[in-house]
Design goal:
five-stranded antiparallel sheet; single chain
């Protein structure tokens, strides 16, 4: 049986910038906020993407000394999974990056300003009602945010819908803004043939399940692209709230 603690380089996600035939093994992401096929382990980021280390030993030393923050929190686990919309900060240099979809690289670390590193966009993947009638938002990165309601029979505080996006502050996780998954909002495609493309939502045609609804996006160049609602991540109302690679607007 193959070991559950190891990962062959030949089986690693294709968007990891590693040499496939130089060595047999690579680091396997630990269970965490992102799926193992849609994330980078911290060691890969430090060594292969940012280039702050030449070997895994050097990268683990950098992490153990607390030089890297993810979403405003120091992370020392070299297997920690870093995925969609996560903010990576190099403490000593002040460099900040956000993990965003890319048309050719699938996922990439995009440089951002320190001001932009103070917030993060999170998609609401599910909602649950907890004790007392309060609403719990289950976000795409494993976070849970509690929305307290005064009257459970008339929860006027609950203005959130599944697949909407909330803007939260880092690292205290306070909700700063709310963007609906609706017509007129800006969104980026997170998977499929049009991954990494950004545009304004023009139409949403639902036939069966809501997540499989066909969404039409109009890019800044006037081109129309189509994907399913499950691959749509809202990034703003009048304009994208986060900086994105230039390739996203082509």
């Amino acid at each position: 049986m193959p070991s559950l603690r190891h990962l062959r380089r030949s089986c690693a996600p294709y968007f990891w910038p590693i040499l496939r035939k130089e060595y047999v093994w690579t680091v396997k992401p630990a269970p965490g906020p992102h799926p193992k096929d849609k994330c980078f382990p911290l060691l890969i980021i430090v060594r292969d993407i940012l280039g702050y280390a030449k070997t895994a030993r050097e990268a683990r030393r950098i992490l153990a000394e607390g030089h890297i923050k993810v979403d405003g929190v120091v992370r020392r686990d070299y297997k920690f999974p870093v995925g969609l919309m996560d903010v990576v900060e190099v403490v000593d240099t002040g460099e900040c990056y956000r993990v965003v979809p890319h048309p050719t690289k699938y996922l990439t670390l995009h440089p951002i300003s320190p001001e932009e590193a103070k917030f993060k966009l999170c998609r609401i993947n599910n909602k649950t009602t907890v004790k007392g009638g309060h609403i719990q938002l289950n976000l795409h990165d494993g976070r849970n945010i509690l929305i307290r309601v005064k009257d459970p029979l008339n929860p006027v505080e609950d203005v959130y819908t599944t697949l909407d996006v909330v803007k939260i502050s880092l690292p205290d996780q306070q909700i700063l803004d709310h963007y609906r998954c609706d017509l007129g909002y800006w969104a980026i495609v997170t998977d499929g043939a049009n991954v990494g493309k950004v545009g304004r939502i023009v139409t949403i045609v639902q036939i069966f399940k809501r997540r499989q609804a066909v969404v039409t996006l109009e890019t800044p160049s006037g081109k129309e692209i189509r994907t399913i609602l499950d691959y749509v991540f809202v990034v703003g109302k009048d304009k994208p709230e986060i900086s994105l690679p230039e390739e996203a607007f082509d």
